[in-house]
Design goal:
The chain is α/β, with parallel strands linked by helices. The protein contains 14 helices and 14 strands.
């Protein structure tokens, strides 16, 4: 079974790759296939959310009742809030066009990872063919803040819609079996969108829905892989939420010739440092005692060797220029590189844990990485 993941052009490639890596971590009979970015249609409509409750509410199907649970937003949005939207038909047409243009087999699944809001304000949906889907990639920080990174809810939505397509034969069958009252099941409808938090913490199906799935003619190897992903999502979410309380940090793996950095206890989360950032990070990782800024030039040869190995610079002259700029005490380049490293770890693990992973200035006048080196492993 092939699942083609297509992304709107403005969906960040690093975020897309993190979702893809998380899905591919759990091997099985489903193959997740990436694509080049898709140019989305122009929006010809606009939604106006007059209140916070409007923004947090899906457009319900008939006879669906609304919930009124209070929720504290995680980011600032002023109301009334206006934003352009696309219709479901427009989103599904993107999938259909990609299927036609790329000659995708009719049995393959296509999931559009979309950063343009939809007019019904849903997290995702499937069309009547049960083979074309869209999943929203934006606004997750409204519901989760920094407690998890966006790839977890996006991955959850992808897996959930694939499971629903195996549970039911028609789109209407899905709506006939949703739970109006939330119970921490994948089939909770969540008219009040804040209730997605409960579903994410359980990342499971209730006994009733498991019974429906058991009676379907679904390929068990497909199901096993999708449930493995769900279990991994739950474990990683709970690890991140409890890590500060338990003072537990994720293990780090530095992999291959490119020295790519992964946090293995956070779902193999890749920290997307560019070659210069990675070279500087490797230098400080190799010197747990720390390095004073004014002495960085003494480590120029080692720093250059890291950069030469992992950069795509075409000539030695360009490599030398980059390293000379980095070690020049009269230039601000090193501070800029360190700031970018801190920002990327903060985005990945939150502000508190980022202090252990980042290159930090100490009271002794040195910069160092506080992370216990017993948590670091180099993998060929």
């Amino acid at each position: 079974m092939k699942v083609h993941l297509i992304r709107s052009k403005n969906y960040d490639i690093e975020d897309f790759n993190n979702v893809l890596n998380l899905l591919r971590k759990y091997r099985g009979s489903i193959e997740f296939v990436p694509s080049e970015p898709i140019l989305m249609p122009e929006s010809d409509q606009e939604e106006i959310y007059n209140t916070k409750k409007d923004f947090e509410t899906k457009e319900p199907f008939p006879q669906m009742r609304l919930f009124s649970e209070e929720f504290e937003p995680k980011k600032e949005i002023s109301f009334p809030h206006r934003r352009p939207t696309l219709s479901w038909d427009q989103l599904f047409e993107v999938c259909k066009k990609y299927r036609r243009d790329q000659l995708i087999d009719e049995n393959d699944h296509i999931i559009l990872m979309n950063d343009v809001p939809n007019d019904k304000n849903w997290f995702g949906c499937v069309d009547a063919t049960m083979k074309n889907y869209f999943v929203q990639t934006n606004d997750w920080d409204w519901y989760f803040g920094n407690s998890i990174d966006d790839r977890f809810p996006v991955t959850y939505e992808i897996v959930s819609w694939l499971l629903r397509s195996m549970m039911f034969q028609k789109q209407n069958d899905i709506m006939n079996h949703v739970h109006e009252e939330p119970r921490g099941c994948m089939m909770d409808f969540c008219v009040d969108k804040t209730q997605i938090v409960l579903k994410m913490r359980t990342a499971d199906l209730c006994p009733e829905c498991l019974g429906i799935l058991e009676n379907r003619d679904a390929i068990r190897t497909h199901l096993r892989q999708l449930f493995d992903i769900m279990d991994g999502l739950r474990d990683n979410i709970m690890f991140r939420q409890r890590s500060h309380l338990l003072m537990r940090l994720s293990k780090m793996e530095i992999r291959g010739m490119s020295k790519t950095i992964y946090l293995t206890d956070l779902g193999d989360l890749q920290i997307n440092l560019n070659p210069k950032e990675r070279a500087l990070y490797l230098l400080y990782l190799n010197h747990p005692e720390g390095i004073q800024r004014s002495y960085l030039i003494d480590y120029k040869t080692e720093l250059r060797s890291y950069y030469a190995q992992i950069s795509n610079q075409a000539t030695n002259e360009l490599i030398d220029q980059a390293i000379n700029l980095l070690v020049d005490i009269t230039d601000n380049n090193m501070n800029e590189v360190m700031a970018r490293i801190r920002a990327k770890f903060k985005h990945a693990v939150g502000e508190e844990q980022a202090k252990d992973y980042s290159i930090t200035f100490t009271p002794h006048g040195t910069h160092k990485i506080l992370l216990n080196r017993e948590l670091v492993e180099f993998v060929d």
